[in-house]
Amino acid sequence: MNITTVDTTPFSDQRPGTSGLRKTVSVFRTTHYLENFVQAILNALPPGERESLVIGGDGRYYNRQAIQIIIRIALASGCRRLLVGQHGFLSTPAASLMIRKYGLDGGIILSASHNPGGPSGDFGIKFNTANGGPAPEQVTDRIHRIAGELKQYRIADIPDVSLEQTGTREFGTARVEVIDPVADYADLMEKLFDMDRIRALFASGRFRLVFDAMHAITGPYAREVLVRRLGAPDNTVMNGTPLQDFGGGHPDPNLVHARELVALMQAADAPDMGAASDGDGDRNMILGRDFFVTPSDSLAIMAANAHLLPGYSNGIAGIARSMPTSMAADRVARQLGVDCYETPTGWKFFGNLLDAGRITLCGEESFGTGSDHVREKDGLWAVLFWLNLVAARKQSVAEIVLGHWQAYGRNYYSRHDYENVELEKAQDLVGRLQAVLAGLPGRRLAGLQVKTADEYSYTDPVDGSYTEHQGTRIIFEDGSRIIVRMSGTGTQGATLRFYYEKFEPGNGVLENDAQTQLAPLFSVAQDLTRLGEITGRHAPDVVT
Ligand code: VG1
Ligand code: CO
């Protein structure tokens, strides 16, 4: 195997965000751009801890070309074992499983998750460490620093490795194994859930599910688990073939982007349950008949019911949620007598808590839920969890949620996104908001008394690592919250996220529309941030 050393110039913008490095495809195709970043990842790892990797992606445009480049760079850096998903496919949760199951040093996942794909779309690289989870900040900071100084990369001179058939190719003493990306994952799901019970639910003919893979990575996984192993009819999986441009869609499972599914679920003959997943298979949306389960509620309901499922029958050790996620899960934790942790946005902050055994379930308001079965959020896992719940409780999705609200109260919740705002304006807005925080406690706004107002920072309780600037929060005496943060996953301008939450006790108004219920908080946030005046925006682009 010939290895060439190539002179290159460093890129200062290779800073991973909330979840990996995301740029447009055209940026990733800039000469040396991808090569540099992959070399920086490998250089950031101590020798001896970069010998085995899993590589795969969500099938988006440039996935296959990128994989060939990564194989060459990895071999040139001394990797001895590379597992690559067949056709280049691997969902994010399956990649996490592969790392853990085969004791690998890490994984490189090619995805920009829910961002659109295609030649003019986005591309991305996530790096996961040996625990199977997203690299923590210390590691991504090191990668960024190395990328900003990189002068050379090394690349092996080998032909393209065919990804079409599973099997092993040898290059000197190194092996490249093309593996079935689905089988191990499906086997793990069988261990966690009551497959017989779910199979009986489908066989009864009285229950219909539609799963929208949004032309992204979960199609093959959903077919294997739902159709082949659980006996659901073929037409259960819609948009099940991964496409390079996701069929022109935006593979983000929410009420706005999963329009086709939402329309199905609102029709007169709607299926009993609807679900969708995102580009790389780590997000999920759960719907009942004309009924939407907010991700925050989903996490709380999973926690309250986990003991009904085989994989969690011994109960849960604890729960974690990202800071902007509603506090519904906290109420369940209190009832169960387990700890509930609040972490910054991004799955990487759950890793230490999961590894230390402090939590079993975790989730984010952004359609992400997961457990200690892997170290990523897991879309199809969440769907199976809900299927198992429906089968075990013999209730509809809506009945389960309503019952939960009656028992625990309802945390009304909504997120408003303002996309593609000019960066300076977004920074200006956040800066001005922060400047008035100190004067807010004690003031009454829209009839609510402000309790605290601050910028969120976090000290990891396991390793003591500290991170700051993780969002601005205004918390009211009654537990209502307004949170403002800037997205760390976009590729154009800035996205401002406003998160709203208001609690209603179990004997209160439980079935109101969230937008109506939260409206007083919207005005408070708009006035405080001078949103309209600074950004010229008067309505959010996406409401979830
Ligand atoms: C968003 C979500 C966050 C999630 C991240 C990655 O980040 O808010 O909760 O972890 O996307 O999701 P941001 O910084 O844009 O708010 V995904 O499915 O990459 O992988
Ligand atoms: Co994703």
Main sheet summary: 7 strands, mixed
Which strand order does the major sheet show? 2-6-5-3-4-9-8
| Content-based structural category | alpha/beta
**For the CA atoms, what is the radius of gyration?**
23 Å
Counted beta strands: 27
Low-confidence stretches: none
Mean pLDDT: 96
Bound ligands, each once: alpha-D-glucose-1-phosphate-6-vanadate, cobalt (II) ion
Could you explain how this protein is built, in words?
With 544 residues, this protein is of the alpha/beta class. The chain contains 17 helices and 27 strands. Strands 2-6-5-3-4-9-8 form a 7-stranded mixed beta sheet, with helices on both faces. A 7-stranded antiparallel beta sheet has the order 20-21-24-25-26-19-27. The protein has a 5-stranded mixed beta sheet with strand order 11-10-12-13-14, with helices on both faces. A hairpin with a 4-residue loop joins β24 and β25. The longest helix has 16 residues, at 514-529. It is globular. Residues 18-19, 113-114, 278, 282-283, 322, 345-347, 364, 366, 368, 487-489, 497 line the site of alpha-D-glucose-1-phosphate-6-vanadate (VG1).
